[in-house]
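so ive been stuck on this for like two days lol. basically i have the seq below and the ligand is adenosine-5'-triphosphate, smiles is in there too. i just want the complex predicted, nothing fancy, no docking runs or whatever. if the output looks off dont worry ill sanity check it later, just need somthing to start from for the group meeting slides
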Amino acid sequence: MDKKTESCSKNSPLLELRNVSVVKGGKKLLDSVSLSLNAGEHLAILGPNGSGKSSLIKIFTKEYHPLAGKAESSLKLMGKEHWNVFELRKFLGIVSGDLQQTCARPIPVLDVLLSGFFSSIGVYYNHKITPEMRARALEVLDFLELIQLSDRLMNELSSGEARRVLIGRALVHDPKILVLDEPANSLDLKGLYSFRKNVRKIAASGKSIILVTHNLEDIIPEIDRVALIKAGKILKDGPKEAILTQKNLSELFSLPVRVGKAGGYFWAWA
Ligand SMILES: Nc1ncnc2c1ncn2[C@@H]1O[C@H](COP(=O)(O)OP(=O)(O)OP(=O)(O)O)[C@@H](O)[C@H]1O
Ligand SMILES: [Mg+2]
């Protein structure tokens, strides 16, 4: 990359989608979605079941591809339209429910973190683990206050513990953005508390967080921007206080919704 392009990339948003649409099986999952995220910014993407939240994440990971040939459509990471899987891994750390199911195997926690370096599930004979990788995995476990779980097997952990270990796996590459897809599903109060504590610590460390959820309570106080997604379209995008109103949420969920807030958290009930 030449110097001019590189300096341009540094000033660009971390992530920028313009008019991105996705069609699968004849169905439009995303419809002209535009969204950008600057360094250090935290964003919650809130929408009902089936609104296209996970599909949006799959665009970033190249599992789904934007509809080709659409005028003015683009998808850039740090100003670049083209990137390879290796660059992507260093850029985005993703934790999803799908990943947790895949990782529920008798694999020691430390190996789960190390496998993050190889995008595998577990460590195999052909993986060359360097002392630096091991030190980094231990550093991340320590940061997340999970070091005592290092030798435990992944399939013997509670949901909350396993979820936090997967955050650790996503962090080994020191990505610029941590993406959490429905992170708090099935966690009890204590699990939720420990999980949020970790995510808040990561948000405060300077990484950007993209949190995808249908649940307002998942939105930690550090996230001050919310985008509402419905039927594959971005309905609203802006400051949390202005977006999480009864009017907007009633429109989002297509039913009368009331909103409460306390201690930097919001919740809703129908
Ligand atoms: N590969 C696919 N082929 C066909 N339809 C799909 C495909 N992937 C997703 N869909 C459909 O697209 C819609 C959006 O799915 P998506 O998983 O993005 O929703 P979501 O907002 O993440 O929902 P949830 O809150 O339930 O996780 C759903 O109706 C889903 O059935
Ligand atoms: Mg989903």
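The chain has one domain: 3-269. The chain has ten helices and eleven strands.
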